[in-house]
Design brief:
The protein has one domain: Up-down Bundle (Methane Monooxygenase Hydroxylase, Chain G, domain 1), CATH 1.20.58.480. The protein is globular, with a radius of gyration of 21 Å. The chain contains 9 helices and 4 strands. α2 runs parallel beside α4 and α6 packs antiparallel against α7. The structure holds protoporphyrin IX containing FE.
Length: about 210
């Protein structure tokens, strides 16, 4: 299979694919190598690292969920990821450098920026906060479309492929074994929930 068309740009540890990446080549070649060996039916017991451990190790594949940038924004903007989604993102911190993990933990326990804005009503502050949230919602929506283009669509077209079993597992589960479309929609929805509803200002109330 031809892979020379891959164009990969690394931004803060995140691998960003340009429009030149062929979804079928991504799905059929690269994704298999980043799938990891945790919740992976091909390697249910994990992988034995000879000379490192006597027991097989279960490790998730590479994912931007392990990038500290997005988790820092979430903590700063008080975006709450609940239940399984929150647990998965917290688990992904184990793959970050310890200093990055500590930064996210520190931001999470700092006085809440959202509460500050709510208790000091200012239209400018509120709009600035909401534009940050909206930008993150847009990013997560764009990302959902990218995942559909690079994983769901080529996965549904991979009939007859010798790696079909691998594809089936990887089409519905993320690198951590999550059902990733449910997970990704949940992170997007939690982001949307953080928007502050602007109350009408006193002057506008008197105008009406
Ligand atoms: C072809 C390109 C991409 C594919 C197929 C893809 C796929 C996925 C999948 C399946 C997940 C679910 C969790 C997991 O499996 O680990 C995920 C999570 C995530 N991805 Fe990507 N991704 C791509 C590119 C990117 C890029 C370029 C970014 C950053 C700008 C990014 C940021 C994230 C983040 C932050 C998460 C964690 C969920 C969240 O916080 O909303 N991904 N990705």
């Amino acid at each position: 299979m031809k892979v020379e068309k891959f164009k990969v740009i690394t931004i803060n540890g995140i691998v960003l694919f340009s429009d030149h990446v062929d979804p079928t080549a991504f799905h059929g070649t690269l994704r298999i190598f980043v799938s990891g060996w945790r919740d992976n039916s091909m390697l249910p017991r994990g992988l034995l690292y000879e000379g490192v451990s006597n027991e097989p190790m279960l490790l998730s594949g590479g994912s931007a969920a392990q990038s500290s940038a997005l988790q820092c924004y979430d903590a700063l903007l008080c975006i709450q990821h609940e239940d399984e989604t929150g647990a998965f993102l917290t688990h992904m911190r184990e793959y970050m450098p310890p200093a990055h993990r500590r930064l996210i933990e520190t931001l999470s326990v700092c006085p809440s920026l959202r509460d500050f804005i709510l208790s000091h009503p200012s239209s400018d502050l509120c709009q600035a906060f909401n534009s940050c949230i909206s930008a993150l919602v847009d990013l997560r929506n764009y990302h959902l479309k990218t995942v559909a283009k690079y994983v769901i669509l080529p996965g549904s077209q991979a009939m007859g492929c010798p790696l079909r079993g691998v594809g089936t597992t990887l089409n519905t589960t993320g690198t951590g074994g999550s059902s990733f479309m449910v997970f990704l929609k949940s992170t997007r929805n939690a982001t949307q929930k953080a928007l502050i509803q602007e109350r009408p200002s006193a002057s506008r109330e008197t105008e009406i």
